[in-house]
Amino acid sequence: MRRPRPFAATLMYWLLVALLCAAVAEASVRAWGFLPAYALHAKGIPYALRFRLDESLLFRFLPDAEHSINALGFRDRAFSATRGGMRRAVVVGDSFPAGLFVKLEETFPKRLQGLLGSTEVLNLGVQGYGPDQELLVLRRYGKALRPDVVIWSLFPANDYNDLIKNRLFEVASGGELVAAEPNAVSAELPLLRASMLARLLWAGRFLPAEAEARLQPLLFVDSEAPTPVNAQTISLMRAIAEAFRKEAESLHASLLAVVIPSIEQAQKDAPADTSLNQATAALLHDAGIPVVDLSAPFSGHPELYTPEEHHLSAAGHTAAAAEIARGYAAISPAR
């Protein structure tokens, strides 16, 4: 007759089993890449796009063929590593190149491709991204896409604000750009990622309500939000610009920056101050980056924007593409 196992040994056995199961579940969730996914309801867009949190980029859109979001989360057709005999340019930026308020073929990256003829233009613009995320996009996808030219689209009216809210980078004492820990998303993610799946199954949400409430304004803010331009944000933007230039050089690609004004700066009657755009253009020039500043050609032309969303209209995208094409012709592709 077998002697009964001591209670302490039985307890230890089941604790080890539980720990092993938890470890397997955690490893599986991390290998799966499980992170919260939500629906974006942007002002003026008559449909919702789904996005997933990303520990590096903060978020990325999920594929949506109906609305021209490709497998990598960009508003474009599928990207191919095969280049053929054409040159290739990639556009990185925010909602302006993404162009969710116009048809895909009306976005300025696609219009630009039509103007350049022998250059394929890939659209890596993402609604809600800031300059820091755009740098990380180039670092993540640039090597595989092998561009000859990188076109960096900036919107100074809220780009400086993005650098603060995202908490992706800091400037070290020597002036170099360093990753900040934790960033706006990683600060809200639990240590045990499997707990998010358990919470979803139990409560119908990935994260505690208060965490999701903190994330919502961090991920998407109104483009007209006040811009805290000060020594810290200027230092961050300068370091981001230097990093962009170095990243393009590592890809053996030329770099061209595009500064997009706000609708207020294009008003006929009372155009807003464009000094921030001018200061940003000067900062980029100081970093050795050629710049196309759309402030002057867009001045007095509010019809280049959609009246409700204050993003580029189809006419605005066409006008932007024409100006960028002239800037593109002025630079010499690296290969």
Structure overview:
By secondary structure, this protein is an alpha/beta fold. It has a single domain (39-187, 223-329), classed as 3-Layer(aba) Sandwich (Rossmann fold). It is built from 11 helices and 10 strands. It has helices at 7-32, 95-98, 108-116, 131-145, 156-166, 194-203, 209-219, 231-250, 275-286, 295-298, 314-329; strands at 37-40, 49-54, 58-61, 87-93, 119-125, 149-154, 169-171, 177-179, 254-259, 291-293. It has a 5-stranded parallel β-sheet, with helices on both faces. It has a 3-stranded antiparallel β-sheet with strand order 1-2-3, with no helix packed on it. Helix 9 (275-286) links the parallel strand 9 and strand 10 (291-293). Helix 3 (108-116) packs across helix 11. The chain is elongated. The termini are far apart. The model has no long low-confidence stretch (mean pLDDT 87).
